[in-house]
Design a protein that fits this description.
2 domains; 104 residues; three-stranded antiparallel beta sheet; 3 helices; alpha+beta
Length: 104
């Protein structure tokens, strides 16, 4: 597979990119990583795996979010914003955006 088969980043629209990375924890010498190369991306998502096919599939997978969970996360982000908790807000915003594209 080539890079153009990867979907674009769901957060910023940049083309996803794949590279090999050293694997220091396992028997294999390297892993594959798919990621958003845009330094201005608000989330900068990435996926690691043992095979190219595994990371392509994981990166290209998108799910439909549960409306109740989206509402809960949005309410939490608004509450944090209104209380001036910017650091915690950025973490919850990242969680919301990750959820919306099916990450966790």
């Amino acid at each position: 597979m080539e890079k153009e088969h990867l979907k674009k980043c769901p957060f910023c629209g940049f083309q996803g990119y794949i590279k090999t990375v050293p694997n220091i924890d396992e028997d294999k010498e390297e892993l594959f990583m798919t990621f958003c190369p845009n330094s201005d991306c608000p989330v900068q998502p990435s996926v690691e795996g043992e095979t190219v096919d595994e990371v392509y599939k994981a990166w290209n997978t998108r799910t439909r979010p549960d409306p109740a969970e989206v509402e809960r996360l949005v309410d939490n982000v608004i509450r944090l914003r209104d209380n001036g908790l910017s650091y915690k807000l950025s973490l919850d915003y990242k969680q919301l955006m990750t959820y919306l594209i099916g990450g966790e």
